[in-house]
Design goal:
Elements (H helix, E strand, L loop, with lengths): L10 H14 L8 E2 L2 E2 L7 H16 L11 H7 L10 H8 L3 E5 L5 E3 L2 E3 L11 E7 L2 E9 L2 E7 L1 H4 L5 H34 L25
Antiparallel strand pairs: 1-2, 3-6, 4-5, 6-7, 7-8
């Protein structure tokens, strides 16, 4: 992230780290082109460069003795006794790390994103709802679905992940969702019928005793109410 002009807080450490990468790592990689010449060899793929960078960072940069503190960065860090606050679950860790978030609406056949279709059987109950998806740009086979800031499920793209969700499973999930909706409607209708039955079973006022006239409400009512 870029800093504002005339506000260099934190900029020095970041720029110094980049300079360390340029001086200690990049000139030793194949395909490097710099001011002092080039390095022969085939170009590295992104995954190969990621592996080389990780090895250099953990085995060299963190183990190299610093000139000012006279210690290796990893030894200095471990001597401080810092205990990080870990998330309670992997889903919370995904919510913290996967910053790329998009808003999508659940369709009948799942969620459409980047020209692909993502589906999970749990999405059958959320058709038409707006959800938040979080994903790793380097791995689009799986996306995480969040509904109202809560983790819902992991949706898989069958074409990218090699996992296939059959049409039978999709239909079964929709049938189960419709069954749950019908059961909820029946339960509510039964409550309404019981209420109507209890109201109709109340005794009518006796013909000898005059019925008590209803009290006039104090609140002003309009004609169309």
């Amino acid at each position: 992230m870029f800093s504002w002009p005339d506000h260099p807080r934190g900029r020095g450490k970041i720029e110094r780290f980049f300079r360390s990468v340029e001086q200690l790592l990049l000139p030793h990689l194949p395909g490097f082109v710099g001011e002092n010449g080039t390095t022969g060899g085939p170009l590295l793929s992104l995954s190969a460069f990621d592996a080389r960078f990780r090895t250099w960072l953990l085995d060299d940069y963190h183990q190299r003795v610093h000139e000012e503190i006279k210690e290796a960065p990893q030894a200095r860090w471990e001597a401080g006794g810092f205990l990080p606050q870990m998330p309670e679950s992997l889903e919370q860790l995904d919510l913290l790390l996967l910053h790329v978030a998009k808003q999508r609406r659940v369709q009948q056949d799942g969620i459409h994103f980047q020209g692909q279709r993502y589906f999970d059987t749990n999405l059958a109950a959320y058709v038409g709802e707006d959800v938040t998806i979080r994903y790793d740009p380097r791995d689009l086979a799986v996306i995480r679905i969040f509904y109202q800031e809560r983790f819902l499920c992991r949706a898989v793209c069958p074409e990218l992940a090699g996992e296939h969700i059959s049409l039978k499973e999709v239909i079964q999930a929709r049938k189960e969702q419709r069954k749950r909706v019908r059961e909820g409607i029946k339960e509510r209708l039964s409550v309404v019928e019981q209420f109507q039955t209890s109201k109709s079973s109340e005794p009518l006022p006796s013909p000898i005793e005059p019925a008590v006239p209803p009290t006039t409400p104090r609140l002003k009512r309009y004609y169309n109410e």
